[in-house]
Amino acid sequence: MQPLIRNREFLLALVVIALIALIGLRAPEFVTPGNLAQVFTDTSILMMLALGQMAVIMTRCIDLSVAANLALSGMVVAMVNAANPAIPMPVLLLLTLVVGGALGVVNGLLVWRVGIPSIVVTLGTLSIYRGTIFLLSGGAWINAHQMSPAFIGLPRVEFLGLPLLAWTAIVIVLLVAAAIAWTRLGRAFYAVGGNPTAAVYAGLDVGRTQFAAYVMSGLLAGLCGYLWVSRYAVAYVDIAGGFELDVIAACVIGGVSIAGGIGTVGGAVLGALFLGITKNALPVIGVSPFWQMAISGGVIIAAVIINARSGRRRGRLILREAQAQS
Amino acid sequence: MTDHTLDTLAGSPGTLPDRLDLGWRRWMRWEVLLLAVAIGIFLINSFASPYFLDPWNLSDATFNFTEKAIIALAMALLIIAGDIDLSVASIIALASVTMGAAAEAGVGTPGLVAVGLLTGLAAGAFNGFLITRFQLPSIVVTIGTMSLFRGICYIALGDGVYRNYPSSFAWFGQGYVWWVFSFELALFAVLAFLFGLLLHKTVFGRQIFAVGNNPVAALFSGVRVQKVRFSLFLLTGLASGIASILLTARVGSTRPSIALGWELEVVTMVVLGGVSIMGGSGTIVGVVIAAFVMGLVTFGFGLLNVPGIVMSIFVGLLLIGVIALPIGIRKLARRWQGVSGRAKR
């Protein structure tokens, strides 16, 4: 076991707590339990997406299409709900998972079976999925009054003081953490990303593992599609535009290495919380929300520099430097 | 870049000759195919719309891709060297905002051009410095700076707009050099020629291929790998600065959301032009033809009143299809060769 002080998640948790404390100095009303719960709920979607993205990044791929997938899945369920409010919620939830999962399957197959570099695949599907929303909806908005009360109300149902949206995130985080720690697939994510050649010799199918990661990311994006649309009670072409960058930022801040094989659920969750707290705190401490984008950019760069410096000390220097240059 | 199937790791025999033969054979295949596609689209367009063949219309058509194509020239070199820059569209926005601020302060046209170019260079240098000095993956750093540069634009401008550009400045985006040939098109032609020379006829060009194919081997052969990579980021920043001047002069105003999402189209152009996204191979001729293909498609769709977002579906399909096609053919060919080919390995 490494000492606590060098544990990345522990340090990140300290940074997050320090951040909350600093904001509390300027605006004490921010640190009330009620408000913190609000911030957590607001960050739930980002947190879940970050977990899917983490799995993809760990297998040396990237999923730039998550936000477009979320928007398309959300639009599909919103349109179905608007067209026929009688369809019960479990069916709609299944539908959003199927749509999101199918879009993830498309990404995964293109990476696994066709062998196209993941960044190209998801750059392409990002604009294809967004365009498809326009084709489906004709550019029209689905507004709150077109959605059924159950559709909008479900994530808002309170249970032990937290809305269902936050509980969903908590359950998903626990599920993914368990899956990553204890299932064959979870360990395969690390093996495939850490050293693909060795993974093949160990009997793992690299492409198939990457495929599984994309399906996981797609399923989570589908789930978040419904959650997003019902939380903001509106669906249109551009919802969650550019959100994929926030998701990747959460992973990078959380110490997930873009070179693959390194990452933890705790890190990704803390990374998402860090972004969520800054986003919610800016208006409270009187900074223009226009600062948000530059801050996330700066934090991504800082995080990746820190990650690279702490990662370099370990192990075979010559090989590592050779790899670093490629 | 992130694809690590066993095939690419082992350097399958099928891909090796392609990579070594950087001149004639690729040019014989991909670029000719692409040219055929371009001519095909041209013909379809001229049948589909009676307005297409008008010289002034065709000249207008060039405006919507020359700015992206100028960045694509530099991006091609960067991708051949094994890197990528996703922050180009944000550099355009940053340069446009600094030019706008300078114009508000009363700076004249030559000054504005200098400001635009310097901002592009500075942003490129920042990317290059982070990536080569700290040995960071270019994709993450430029995703970061993409957000940082555009974020700075939002901080500076918010929901405001700069539009006090001197009237002589508009010439860069709207002026004509001769008859229907705009300044933008002429500049693109000159730059394409220069980039072609740089990549295919100079030592620096050979070094770019060497770095992209195998950076460690290049280092051992005396190539200053980090210096080459840094200069390419600088070059891409400069190209984005030039594109920013053209775009700002053409539309005559600056908002923080200017050129949003252009990085996708620039990368598509480069990849469509036959540059391998894994680095190590590609030609400028290919990128130039690809720029025309995308310009013609966009313009043709525009004449047929297809909305922009539907075009983005097409661009996405084009990007994936163009890469999937040769991979699919190679796979089929390998299956066709059958067991005998596998035994020889």
Please characterize this protein's 3D structure.
The complex is a heterodimer of chains A (326) and B (345). In chain A, 73% of the residues lie in helices and 1% in strands. By secondary structure, chain A is mostly helical. Mean pLDDT of chain A is 89; it is low at 313-317. Chain B has a two-stranded antiparallel ribbon. With 345 residues, chain B is mainly α. The longest helix of chain B has 37 residues, at 308-344. Chain B is globular. Classes of the chains: A mainly alpha (326), B mainly alpha (345).
How are the secondary structure elements laid out?
The complex is a heterodimer of chains A (326) and B (345).
Chain A: H1 8-26, H2 33-58, H3 66-83, H4 89-114, H5 118-137, H6 149-153, E1 158-159, E2 162-163, H7 164-182, H8 184-194, H9 196-201, H10 206-232, H11 243-253, H12 265-284, H13 291-312, H14 317-325
Antiparallel strand pairs in A: 1-2
Helix pairs in contact in A: 1-12, 2-7, 2-8, 2-10, 2-11, 2-12, 3-4, 3-5, 3-10, 4-5, 4-10, 7-8, 8-10, 11-12, 11-13
Chain B: H1 6-10, H2 16-20, H3 24-48, H4 55-80, H5 88-104, H6 109-133, H7 138-157, H8 171-174, E1 176-178, E2 181-182, H9 183-201, H10 203-213, H11 215-220, H12 225-251, H13 262-272, H14 284-303, H15 308-344
Antiparallel strand pairs in B: 1-2
Helix pairs in contact in B: 3-14, 4-9, 4-10, 4-12, 4-13, 4-14, 5-6, 5-7, 5-12, 6-7, 6-12, 9-10, 13-14, 13-15
